[in-house]
Design brief:
By secondary structure, the chain is of the alpha/beta class. The protein has a single domain, classed as Rossmann fold, CATH 3.40.50.1360. Helices cover 32% and strands 16% of the residues. The chain is built from nine helices and ten strands. Helix 1 packs across helix 2. It starts with a strand and ends with a helix. The structure holds fructose -6-phosphate. The site of fructose -6-phosphate has 13 residues, from loops.
Length: 256
């Protein structure tokens, strides 16, 4: 893991945006894994303003609420089209968001995994982290090798996400999410976290033991993951000075 602490969310986001710009320029048919929620919004806004060609890009979103149609304003399908896809020249057939209303959910999940493989695997996976340490909707105690499947949200996550719905009662209990094993197969990951509300989960993810109780901690086993943080999210890191030094003193061959 490479830990990058910036003064604010804006500059931490700029690093992730640059990774995507570079990838799409080097590989116009890249496969991106995408997240929803508040964290990546700045990133998506910034990507919309870059001059990039998305015609050959394929995307796979991490998750979707089960029982919500695509038209529902709280659905992640709606979120992604509203905040990103409609502003790009991406081909709709290359966009994949898990279906919130599948006829056969188990079959759908197996097919989603196959589609990722058929696309050549995910080149770069964008991640946010929940206050309980979840990535995608892999809640605490998720199997560290899990694949795309149905999960049940914790009360904490439902409360956190109630802001996207008309009240807590309307937040679905069930979701479809890529598994931790699916995420770990991405060639590169970038985890973004901003604000002191994320500090505890971030410290546990980076400096705690690898445990299913903090699903994001599995990223310690990933060979190519960057974690881009603002000061608030980094506030509980014990080795922050070391991470700063490493970032500011990269050998020339690595900084390039
Ligand atoms: C959503 C997802 C989740 C969020 C996490 C943080 O697609 O993958 O893991 O990243 O719940 O949400 P925000 O960014 O709203 O704090």
């Amino acid at each position: 893991m490479e830990i990058i602490i910036q003064v604010d969310a804006e500059s931490a986001t700029a690093i992730a945006a640059e990774m995507i710009v570079r990838l799409l320029r080097e590989k116009p048919n890249a496969v991106l894994g995408l997240a929803t929620g508040s964290t990546p919004l700045r990133l998506y806004r910034s990507l919309v303003h870059k001059k990039l060609d998305w015609r050959k890009v394929t995307t796979f979103n991490l998750d979707e609420y089960l029982g919500l149609p695509k038209t529902h304003p709280g659905s992640y399908y709606h979120f992604m089209w509203d905040n990103l896809f409609r502003h790009l020249n991406i081909s709709p057939k290359n966009v994949h968001v898990p279906d919130g209303m599948p006829k056969d959910a188990m079959k759908f999940c197996a097919k989603y995994e196959q589609q990722i493989v058929a696309a050549g695997g995910i080149d770069l996976q964008v991640l946010g982290v929940g206050g309980d340490g979840h990535i995608g909707f892999n809640e605490p105690t998720s199997s560290l090798t899990s694949r795309t499947r149905i999960k049940t949200l914790t009360p904490e996550t439902r409360k956190d996400n109630a802001r996207f719905f008309d009240g807590m009662d309307r937040v679905p209990h069930h979701v479809i999410t890529m598994g931790l094993g699916t995420i770990m197969e991405a060639r590169q990951c970038v985890l973004l976290a901003f604000g002191s509300k994320k500090a505890r989960a971030v410290a546990a993810t980076i400096e705690g033991p690898i445990t299913a109780n903090v699903p994001a901690s599995i990223l310690q086993m990933h060979p190519n993951t960057k974690v881009c943080l603002d000061k608030g999210a980094a506030a509980k890191l014990k080795r922050a000075d070391y991470y700063h030094w490493v970032f500011e003193n990269k050998p020339r061959w690595e900084a390039a």
